[in-house]
Amino acid sequence: MDTLGRRFEEVLIVNASKSSKVQVVPSSEYIFSVYQAGRRYIVCLERKICTCGRFQHDEIPCEHAITVLKHNNVTYMHPYCSDYYKPDALEKTYEVAMVPMPDKEDWTVLDYVLEKLSYHLGTEGWLDDQGIEERKTRMRR
Ligand SMILES: [Zn+2]
């Protein structure tokens, strides 16, 4: 079973606590109207969206989505959360951030690269007019 990062478990708990005292009315298999404090929100579980905008924006169930999930007796909410929130993904993000910058000494490769590039381009005939003409001639044949 996969788990979510601790912070996002907490977000789920907070959203879940807000989800009481609301009414859920199903419109279809995946689409539900949620009535909360005189306002109506529409949640689509299939597309993971809510008219409050937070479900799709945060990619974690908002209080309305949680209400709907609870209404459907869904307690396992991880499929409705972005992979981004799972520890694996967080670690991967961290890994990338942890790649050390090369030493400044290693930055001065530009001349070498340019030299190498111009060598290849030169022999390919891209740089001089003659080479371009040759290529055009070859393409016409
Ligand atoms: Zn919502």
Automatic annotation (TrEMBL):
SWIM-type domain residues: 41-73
InterPro entries assigned: Znf_PMZ, Znf_SWIM
Keyword Repeat included in the entry's annotation: no
GO MF annotation terms: zinc ion binding
Keywords associated with the record: Metal-binding, Zinc, Zinc-finger
PROSITE patterns: ZF_SWIM
Official protein name in the record: SWIM-type domain-containing protein
